């Protein structure tokens, strides 16, 4: 299995997201796991993020260690997220993990999709 080590130039995890992610992984017993971020077609602007907790990387994945947590990204999605930051918001209506992506040319008003 081929796994590439990435760095925070690909994606950087901010404090709020790191704390939330550590707590979720601990509650699910996945202490060596991480967050998979994928870019998939869909949403009002054409692309959207899909996030899942995973036990570890798959073949050809890129793994980024940031702020004490592991983010797993497939090579195709990595083309879209370079330079991004992952944060967490506890807001009731628009809460959850949020990707701040400098490559997004257009974002929708709901903040759930983008175009690159």
Q: Any overview of this molecule?
A:
The mean pLDDT is 87. The strands form two sheets. The chain has a seven-stranded mixed sheet. Strands 2-7-8 form a three-stranded mixed sheet. The chain has a single domain, classed as Hypothetical Protein Aq_1857, Chain: A, CATH 2.60.300.12. The longest helix has 13 residues. Helix content is 17%, strand content 41%. The protein has 116 residues and is α/β, with parallel strands linked by helices.
Strand and helix map with partners:
Layout: E1 4-6, E2 11-13, H1 15-27, E3 34-41, E4 47-54, E5 62-66, E6 69-73, H2 75-81, E7 84-89, E8 96-100, E9 106-107, E10 113-115
Parallel strand pairs: 1-5, 2-7, 3-6
Antiparallel strand pairs: 3-4, 4-10, 5-6, 7-8, 9-10
Note the beta-strand portion.
Answer: 35-45%
Helix and strand content put the structural class at: alpha/beta
CATH topology: Hypothetical Protein Aq_1857, Chain: A
Level-2 CATH architecture: Sandwich
Q: Segments where pLDDT lies below 50 for 5+ residues? A: none
Share of helical residues: 10-25%
- Categorize the overall geometry: globular
| Major sheet | 7 strands, mixed
Across the major sheet, the strand order is: 1-5-6-3-4-10-9
Order of helices and strands: EEHEEEEHEEEE
How big is the Rg? 14 Å
Number of strands: 10
Mean pLDDT, all residues: 87
Q: Count helical runs.
A: 2
Domain count: the total is 1
Distance between the amino and carboxyl termini:
30 Å
Superfamily at the CATH H level? HesB-like domain
What's the CATH class label?
Mainly Beta
